[in-house]
Amino acid sequence: xxxxxxxxxxxxxxxxxxxxxxxxxxxxxxxxxxxxxxxxxxxxxxxxxxxxxxxxxxxxxxxxxxxxxxxxxxxxxxxxxxxxxxxxxxxxxxxxxxxxxxxxxxxxxxxxxxxxxxxxxxxxxxxxxxxxxxxxxxxxxxxxxxxxxxxxxxxxxxxxxxxxxxxxxxxxxxxxxxxxxxxxxxxxxxxxxxxxxxxxxxxxx
Length: 205
Known about the structure:
The chain has helices at residues 2-9, 13-17, 39-53, 60-71, 75-82, 90-105, 118-171, 178-186. By secondary structure, it is mainly alpha-helical. Helix 3 packs antiparallel against helix 4 (60-71), helix 3 (39-53) packs parallel to helix 5 (75-82) and helix 6 packs across helix 7 (118-171). The longest helix is centred in the last third of the chain and has 54 residues, at 118-171. The protein has one domain. The two termini are 60 Å apart.
């Protein structure tokens, strides 16, 4: 079941309370409705977490926590998916978002110099920022919706497969022990008919 798989890896509420970076969530961490693992809550959590992760803004975790509260979806899963954009993956992800936005707007792609500097970024910000924001928003919305749909389909498929497996287990015939069958056939049944001319049955008076 998807629920058992997620319960194995998602953190406990106490573990989140101890993190100083998550103190802004306050009572949200203790809200039991934000820890439910259902098809709807997990699908919406994937959508919210991926949407927040792909936005080139600060405080992505606050956006993710707000989305989890509004949609009543799984809070720890939202928090975990935000870390898809980390210092290692962020340059590549946001560069692809920028190229998507530049292609949509029909703008030429600004090539990054060999020696990247703050001065270059500041001078090119007016050309980079609009396509970056547009491409990031397009990627966040599309990937979030696709993730929501995929989770719902996979969850339904897993539930249907598990139900079919239980049905097959219920109707499967029990294995017959051949030794027990021979012993039962050799022992006459008390109510079985016997030859009147033969010896009396020990089961009849």
